[in-house]
Amino acid sequence: MSPALDIRVLELDDLTVVGLDGSLEGPSSGRVTDVVCGSLARDVKTIVLDCSLLESLDAEASAVLGSLAHEVQAHHGHLVMRQPSDQARVVLDLTGTSAVIEFGD
After folding, report:
1. Nearest 10 degrees: CA dihedral of 15, 87, 25, 40?
2. Which one, out of 35, 67, 94, 103, has a CA that is 20 to 30 A from the CA of 47?
3. Model pTM?
4. CA atoms of 88 and 57, how far apart (whole Å)
5. What is each CA distance from 47 to 1, 15, 29, in whole angstroms?
6. pLDDT tens digits, 52-61
């Protein structure tokens, strides 16, 4: 059994910070989609995925993040990934997601 994904959400005016803790895999990526879409419904312009506690990321979840980045951009916003691990960066690069998502400190 893979590690669970815990999600913490901090909503501030036009910014949402989504803390990801554990393992982000295809089946759990729907929960991230729900949070991001909820933020877009509130007209949030910047969504930060805090990956400092993210242990792993699979290719299916990476593809979902790429789709979410396009959705946020369609709403004139920014999806920013903060502190992804080296392993996560490799997956993001291999799936092409790193070309559509922004990275921040």
Report:
1. 20
2. 94
3. 0.93
4. 6
5. 30, 6, 15
6. 999 999 999 9
